Amino acid sequence: MKSRSDIKPSDYFCERDPLAFPLWQKAVIGIAGAGGLGSNAAMLLARSGIGKLIIADFDHVSISNLNRQFFNLDQIGLPKTKALEINLTRINPFIALEMHQKRVTRNNIPTLFKEADLMIEAFDKDSEKLILIETWQQHFPKKALIIASGLAGYGRSEDIKIQQEGSLYIVGDQCSALTPGIAPIAPRVMIVAAMQANLALQIIASKH
Amino acid sequence: MPKQITINGHKQDWWEGMTVRDALKIMNYTFPMLVVKIDNELISRDKYDETTIPEGAELKVIHLISGG
C-alpha cells in the first residue's frame, strides 16, 4: 500500500498528454450535484488530472444510490461530499478539492462556483437544472456550462448526443424521462457523465 | 411568401406579435421544463408570455428531463 508521501507527482502524472495536461492541471471545474452524474464525472476528471474540483451537494449516501453512484456500501449515511472526497483522494492524491455540503440555490451559485472555469450540471431534478442554467448564463455567460438531459433506462447508447447552443452544452438523448419507481441505471448514467467529463477536457484543452 | 422563423431547425410561419408561448404551442412542446433561446439569448421561464419573437429569428427549444 502506498500513501501520498510515497508517491511523487512526476511518477503519478507520467505519460500524460504534453499539450493538454498542463491546461488540465491549471483548470478549475465546478460540479453541481454529487449523485450519479456528479460523482462519476468527478472520478473521471480526477483520473485525467484536472487541478481542482469544486463540488456541492446537500445529500447523504443511501443504499439506493449504489446502483450507479461512485460510493461504497461502507459509506452509507456519510455526506456525499465527504464520501466523494475520500474516494477521489484515493485515486489522485494531488487533486485540490473544495467540497460544499449544501443545497445549490439561485443565490449561492455565483459565490460557490465563482472560481470555476467551466461548470458541469449534475442535478437530478429538471427544475434544478433550469435554475443552474438561468443563473449561470446571467452571471457567467461566457463560461461553458455542460448540462445533462435524458439518460433514463438502458440501451440506445447511440441516441445520446451533444448539442451546443453558444456556451451551453446539452448531453443526453433529450427524450428519456424517468420511469416512476425505477432509478436511472449505471451504464447510461455513466455514458452521460463520461461525455460531460470528456467534453470538459476538450473545452479546456482547446484553449492552448 | 409567408414570413418565417426557425424553431429547432424547422421553418415555421411567423406573425407580428408572436410570443414564445405561441411558438411552444405550435410545436406542441409541452414538457414541463424547457430552455428557450432566441438568437442564442436565453429567455427565462416567466417571460414566455410577454416575449415576442422577431421575424426571421432562430428559436432553440431544449427539453430538460429529470435524472442524474
Order of helices and strands of chain B: EEHEEE
Order of helices and strands of chain A: HHEHEHEHEHEEEH
Rounded to the nearest angstrom, the radius of gyration of chain B is: 12 Å
Output the structural class of chain B. mainly beta
Instruction: Find the CATH superfamily of chain B.
Output: Beta-grasp domain
* Euclidean distance between termini CA atoms of chain A: 37 Å
Helix and strand layout, with pairings?
The complex is a heterodimer of chains A (208) and B (68).
Chain A (H helix, E strand, L loop, with lengths): L8 H4 L7 H7 L1 E5 L3 H13 L3 E5 L23 H12 L4 E5 L8 H4 L5 E4 L4 H14 L5 E4 L12 E5 L2 E5 L13 H20 L3
Parallel strand pairs in A: 1-2, 1-4, 2-3, 4-5, 5-7
Antiparallel strand pairs in A: 6-7
Chain B lengths: L3 E4 L2 E4 L6 H8 L6 E5 L2 E3 L14 E6 L5
Parallel strand pairs in B: 1-5
Antiparallel strand pairs in B: 1-2, 3-4, 3-5
What does this entry look like structurally?
- The complex is a heterodimer of chains A (208) and B (68).
- With 208 residues, chain A is an alpha/beta fold.
- Chain A has one domain: Rossmann fold.
- Chain A has seven helices and seven strands; from the N terminus they run ααβαβαβαβαβββα.
- A seven-stranded mixed sheet of chain A has the order 3-2-1-4-5-7-6, sandwiched between helices.
- In chain A, helix 3 (36-48) packs parallel to helix 4 (80-91) and helix 3 crosses helix 7 (186-205).
- The mean pLDDT of chain A is 96.
- The mean pLDDT of chain B is 93.
- Chain B has one domain (4-63): Beta-grasp domain (Ubiquitin-like (UB roll)).
- Chain B has a five-stranded mixed sheet, covered by helices on one side.
- Helices cover 12% and strands 32% of the residues of chain B.
- The A-B interface holds A 33, 35-38, 122-127, 129-130, 133-134, 137, 147-152, 163, 165-166, 168, 170, 172, 174-178, 184, 189 and B 32-33, 35, 37, 40, 42, 44-45, 60, 62-68.
